[in-house]
Amino acid sequence: MEVHDSSGTLLSSVLDRPMRSDLLKAIVARPPAALSRPEGFVDAAVLLPVWEGQLLFTVRSAHLPHHAAQISFPGGRFDDGESAEQAALREAWEEVGLNPEHVEILGHLNPTLSPFGFRVFPLLGRITQEPQLTPNPAEVDTLLWVPIEELLAAPAYAEERTPPPGNRLPNGLGGEFSEIEGQLRRKVWHYPWRGYDIWGVTGNIVHDFLERIRAVRL
């Protein structure tokens, strides 16, 4: 079966074979963009776990203080002295029971900012054997295995949003941020998938990931 993205481009050159480690490494061969940490922000990391052409997402518990019931990647803030890789692997273990010994970290995607005061480092990881996961009910309601080919073909769209009241984002940011009449705006990507809306920080990370796939397509 031929698979096309939302613009009609044939994706078989990427999707007619499993996502091998070398292809995944090519996706993150381009260095991530530099992003200074704004004053008052703390560092966090998320893991993009790939298993047999699928990305693992979590649906966050409804009672969490930030991003409740939203779709995200496993991750969270650094503990003292941790690297991004260590934080991402630890959080994936604590949230979904993904054994760090079964994850090959392949590289970094572009960091991004959360309006709740986090500088987020996304890391791409290949799961090296069939995962046996146990989500932590205090943090995760549901696990979603999303085929990458379906994300590439999703009817994605972006919107300009004003960060919520009380956000910690400073003015003068570039990239996905702009200012209109002195008001900070942010481009936020949405990826509809089987009744779910993958958006916000997660949607922007997904967009970076998929654009990198398209850039290395043979």
Q: How does this structure look, described?
A:
The structure is a single chain. The protein is of the alpha+beta class. It has one domain (36-171, 183-217): Alpha-Beta Complex (Nucleoside Triphosphate Pyrophosphohydrolase), CATH 3.90.79. It has five helices and twelve strands. The protein has helices at residues 12-15, 21-27, 84-96, 148-153, 200-216, and strands spanning 42-51, 54-60, 71-72, 75-77, 103-108, 112-114, 118-127, 140-147, 157-161, 177-180, 183-193, 196-198. The strands form two sheets. Strands 1, 2, 3, 4, 5, 6, 7 and 8 form an eight-stranded mixed beta sheet that branches. Helix 2 packs across helix 5 (200-216).
User: What is the domain tally?
Assistant: 1
Radius of gyration computed on alpha carbons: 17 Å
N-to-C series of helices and strands: HHEEEEHEEEEHEEEEH
Cα(first) to Cα(last) distance is: 18 Å
What structural class results from the helix and strand content?
alpha+beta
Number of helices: 5
**Mean pLDDT, rounded to whole units?**
86
- The gross shape turns out to be globular
CATH class: Alpha Beta
CATH superfamily: Nucleoside Triphosphate Pyrophosphohydrolase
Main sheet summary:
8 strands, mixed
Low-confidence stretches: 1-17
Q: What name is given to the CATH topology?
A: Nucleoside Triphosphate Pyrophosphohydrolase
EC number: 3.6.1.55
Keywords: Hydrolase, Magnesium, Manganese, Metal-binding
GO molecular function: 8-oxo-7,8-dihydrodeoxyguanosine triphosphate pyrophosphatase activity; coenzyme A diphosphatase activity; metal ion binding
Cofactor: Mg(2+); Mn(2+)
